[in-house]
TrEMBL record:
Taxonomy of the source species: Bacteria, Pseudomonadati, Rhodothermota, Rhodothermia, Rhodothermales
The entry's keywords: Cell membrane, Membrane, Transmembrane, Transmembrane helix
Localization per Swiss-Prot or TrEMBL: Cell membrane
Record domain Mechanosensitive ion channel MscS: where: 152-219
Organism: Salinibacter ruber
Membrane-crossing residue ranges in chain numbering: 69-86, 131-150
Name the record gives this protein: Small conductance mechanosensitive channel
Domain of life: Bacteria
GO MF entries: mechanosensitive monoatomic ion channel activity
Length: 323
């Protein structure tokens, strides 16, 4: 540091009489006073005094930055080492956990990373003499403004956290939401991606996933498949039942317990409506099995000479009134 005697008298007197308010206030006061004195020396044409003034100011600034810079660097290195150790330990612990979804693991690690770097940055700036309270207040106001501007994104983010924590479905599950059906390919904080039976990817906002009625076809170990059909009123339901239950012989995809069944579901206008019900453990086979057995039901009823009616209308004309 430069001895007080080497600093111009006017600069020394001014800095001694200026009220100090912490490191930031002291630095600001010194800068203002040094600038004023330097400008005055320049206008007076006192080039020797201006040279001494600039030299002493530069040495003071270099000493200040060196001292605070070393403190800030030491604080950063120490806190970063602690952060890396905690991050790696948390990552290994989450990898060993079977109860936490990969999406939630990623969210927790990202949250820890952001919070850690915010804390490290705050400590480093404080060591440099920055008024952290004012900075945090400004960031808070900016965060509120950004929150209003990105309201939909924040809603989807919160909905994504809800999905990851509540677990109404997981990656690989077959779900039905609204009129959409497919397998969950990916769950992110903003959206959920489904692969439909047409092998297309559908992206649904997470707010949609928590506000709409959702059916999970995979959550249970056993899945029931219904194939609806109708027979004419003249036919006997037991005959249709016996014919259709023989379809499952040798099909290992269909469970024998619970056993398949054929039930009457409705006495409709043109037919006796029935349903072939059977069970499988593999949700991947739900749609293919339904399609396959829908065709088999039709062929089996035709083979058994059981009529499959269709809606029709008969018109009877009164010839006398028509004339």
């Amino acid at each position: 540091m430069v001895a007080p005697q080497s600093i111009p008298q006017r600069l020394q007197t001014r800095t001694d009489t200026t009220a100090q308010s912490g490191p930031v206030g002291e630095a600001a006061n010194r800068f203002n006073n040094a600038f004023s004195d330097g400008l005055r020396l320049f206008l007076d044409g006192n080039w020797e005094g201006l040279y001494d003034h600039l030299t002493s100011g530069a040495l003071y600034l270099l000493g200040l930055l060196t001292e605070r810079g070393l403190q800030s660097l030491a604080a950063f290195l120490l806190l970063y080492i602690i952060y890396r150790a905690l991050y790696l330990a948390s990552e290994r612990a989450l990898d060993r956990s079977d109860s936490i979804e990969p999406g939630l693991q990623s969210l927790l690690l990202k949250t820890f990373r952001v919070a850690s770097f915010f804390f490290i940055g705050t400590v480093v700036l404080d060591q440099l003499g920055v008024n952290v309270a004012v900075l945090v207040g400004g960031l808070g106001i900016a965060g509120i403004v950004a929150g209003f501007a990105a309201r939909d994104s924040l809603e989807n983010f919160i909905a994504g956290v809800t999905v990851l924590v509540d677990k109404p479905f997981q990656v690989g599950d077959y779900i039905e939401i609204g009129d959409q059906y497919g397998q969950v390919d990916e769950i992110t904080l903003r959206s959920t991606r489904l692969r439909t039976v047409r092998n297309r990817t559908m992206v649904l906002p997470n707010t949609h996933m928590i506000t709409q009625e959702l059916m999970n076809h995979t959550r249970r170990n056993v899945l029931r498949i219904d194939v609806s059909f109708g027979i004419a009123y003249k036919e006997v339901p037991d005959e249709a039942r016996a014919a259709l239950l023989s379809l499952f012989e040798g099909d290992d995809r269909v469970l024998t317990e619970p056993a398949p069944s054929v039930v009457v579901t409705e006495m409709a206008d043109s037919s006796v409506n029935m349903a072939l019900r059977f069970y499988t453990r593999n949700p991947d086979q739900e749609v293919p099995l339904r399609w396959e057995y829908t065709e088999k039901v039709r062929e089996k009823l035709r083979e058994a000479d059981i009529e499959i009616p269709f809606p029709h209308r008969q018109l009877f004309l009164d010839e006398a009134k028509a004339l």
